[in-house]
Amino acid sequence: MKHFRTPKPLEAGAHVALVAPAGPLQKPEELPRAQENARTLGWEPIVGAHATSRVGYLAGHDRDRLNDINSALRDPKIDGIWVLRGGYGMMRILAGIDYDALSRTPKAIIGYSDVTAFHAAVQRKCRLITYHGPTAREVLTDFSRDSFQRAVIRQTDSCGTAPNAREINAGAAEGRLVGGNLAILSSLCGTPFMPDLTDGILILEDVNEPVYRIDRMLQQLKLAGVLNGCKAIVFGDCTSCPEDAGGAESGARQFDEVLGELAHSLGVPCLAGIPVGHIAEQWTIPLGATATLDTAARTLTVTSYKS
After folding, report:
1. CATH code: domain of residue 232
2. Same domain, 202 and 276
3. Rounded to the nearest 5°, which phi and psi values hold at 305?
4. Which tens digits make up the pLDDT trace of 155-165?
5. Catalytic residues
6. Residue at 7 is within a domain
7. Are 97 and 73 in contact (CB under 8 A)?
8. How far is 217 from 149, CA to CA, in rounded Å?
9. Where are the alpha helices (DSSP H) in the chain?
10. Whether the model pTM is above 0.85
11. Which 8-state DSSP code applies to residue 114?
């Protein structure tokens, strides 16, 4: 199994950059809330120069968003980067990120959804553990905050039992945590930034995607051959993913049926409905860390952050 390096825990006093490399902030209270979230965790928030910029659906021009990322990566006083929002736009700047700076001085990278592109590129270029977790602007519930702190600050098991999860294909597996947003991962196929999913427990989530699109994206990953070495598939929440997108005559299919087809064809254990995705109560997943999955017990357990 391939091992990844681990960034330093973000303990009290850490300097954390708040940047918007994808979509823009939506409401005036979001940046102050992000700063307060950082402070309540004992961190000193450092707001990116262009964090409140906007150019259409992007949080400013590509060059400015990239500059905020690279400034944080190159600054020896910055210990981590907490992305303010997902949305869309991270893919547009992947080629310009200073991965060498991050490799020289590993820092914690935190966010989810569109931030999957950042996670994937860092996994591929730097072999560094990153954190699939709430963005900085969000209201952190007690559940989400607890998992977040266990992952980013204490580097212990940040997952556990998901009693409401659904066993799609029975089994157990051990592997490296990989994945993130399904739409972003499928979009990265064929690029130099697609992460290696070999020996991976593949974590997936998505939002506003009808089941036929989920089917199409899963098939794209399968046809590209990137799932061949996967040890297991674990889907979080597919928020607002209708099974019938075109009326009764279109022939709806159930989400679990589509996911089960893929898991059975690959011969891997599969669980769906863990607390990951566009939901208030979510686990923070240390991508690159080692974990075990037991579908019967409905448990995902992070076993090691170390190589």
Report:
1. 3.50.30.60
2. yes
3. -100, -5
4. 999 999 999 99
5. 113, 205, 278
6. no
7. yes
8. 32
9. 30-40, 62-74, 99-104, 116-126, 142-152, 182-188, 211-223, 255-266
10. yes
11. G
